[in-house]
Specification:
With 348 residues, this protein is an alpha/beta fold. The protein is built from twelve helices and 17 strands. α4 crosses α5 and α4 crosses α11.
Length: 348
């Protein structure tokens, strides 16, 4: 194979990727970095973008997806000062203009000119990626690649979690026991919170319970004539001081189980078919917050990873080669897969 070419998984049709030879990215600006992709894990966003039309980003077929990247620096532009060839890095896949009103106000995650790797620019389901120096972050080689792959989703979680300010003894309900939900649950427990999880998929319920969390299946509660609110009061003697929706569409239930002056974080898509009774937002003096991608939270996430603060190996369910990306997407859709690592140039 020519050194100017590389393998990449291209979204050829909805729900179908093919590995092809494409041009390898080249240094084109002084602050560019070329990184060899060691691993890239599958995000739920990748699944949603690949399963059919309707994306706000336009036609996705023909693109290289993937943004949860661990890489090794192999080339640097003339102005790069913070990185050297051979450095292990993780990547913030979003680039900001730093001049729009949102950027100047400190909300770069709402940049009006943002580019998103794996969506609007080529992503990490490939042997090499090109990034700007400001997108790259050092991470210790002592962190296993499986765990380093959590840097980007952990950064998204940390952006929302930093707004909650959970203290010892306070109660927290996490809706959704996928990788993000279980990271939130562990972060809340590390802060001293008493944590319960809610999930409808049996294998994800089991993952939560294997990590030591009380986990409820709302369908089972309904069959038994019980309510989540009643079970939480039985468990804790009160409702939830904090709720985190990592599943999507759980705001009405979160409002119902919230204690007075609780904080409710909508991390996943809050789109609802029925809004339900929103009166308790006023009556309970609730604070409802949203969280969107990464905002200066990558260093915090790397600190968590380098200090091995969370059990992440339990959340990793599959390792697949690039050629089996279709299978990985199906495993994610079914709920059987949790954190699925695509091994592209894994060392060792």
């Amino acid at each position: 194979m020519s050194k100017d070419m590389m393998r990449a998984a291209i979204l050829k049709d909805w729900n179908h990727f093919e590995v092809e030879q494409v041009e390898r990215p080249q240094i084109s600006a002084p602050d560019d970095i070329i990184a060899k992709v060691l691993v890239c894990s599958i995000c739920g966003t990748d699944v949603n973008l690949s399963k059919g039309p309707g994306s706000s980003y336009g036609e996705m077929r023909g693109r290289i997806l993937g943004h949860e990247i661990v890489g090794e620096v192999v080339e640097i532009g003339s102005a790069v000062r913070g990185f050297q060839i051979g450095d292990r890095i993780v990547v913030n896949p979003n680039t900001y203009c730093c001049t729009c009103d949102a950027c100047r106000a400190g909300y770069r995650n709402h940049c009006q000119n943002m580019k998103l790797m794996g969506i609007t620019t080529p992503g990490g389901f490939a042997e090499y990626v090109k990034i700007e120096e400001k997108q790259a972050f050092h991470i210790s080689k002592d962190v296993p690649l499986d765990e380093a792959a959590f840097a980007e989703p952990m950064s998204c979680a940390m952006n929302g979690f930093s707004r909650l300010d959970i203290h010892p003894g306070e109660t927290c309900v996490v809706f959704g026991c996928g990788p993000i939900g279980l990271m939130f649950a562990q972060l809340a427990r590390k802060s001293g919170g008493r944590v319960a999880c809610v999930e409808i998929k049996p294998n994800r319920l089991e993952k939560a319970r294997s990590l030591g969390f009380t986990a409820f299946d709302p369908k089972e509660l309904e069959k038994e004539g019980k309510t989540l609110k009643e079970e939480l009061i039985r468990l804790w003697g009160r409702r939830a001081n904090f709720t985190i929706d990592a599943a999507g569409g759980q705001l009405p239930t979160a409002i119902e189980v919230a204690e007075y002056r609780a904080k409710l974080l909508c991390f996943a898509n809050a789109r609802l078919r029925e809004m339900g009774n929103l009166g308790p937002i006023q009556g309970k003096e609730l604070t409802v917050m949203g969280s969107f991608i990464i905002n200066d939270s990558m260093p915090k996430a790397i600190t968590v990873l380098e200090n091995r603060m969370l059990d992440l190996q339990t959340i990793v369910t599959h390792h697949l080669p690039l050629e089996e990306l279709d299978r990985g997407m199906e495993l994610m859709k079914s709920g059987e897969g949790m954190e699925i690592i695509i091994d592209i140039a894994r060392e060792g």
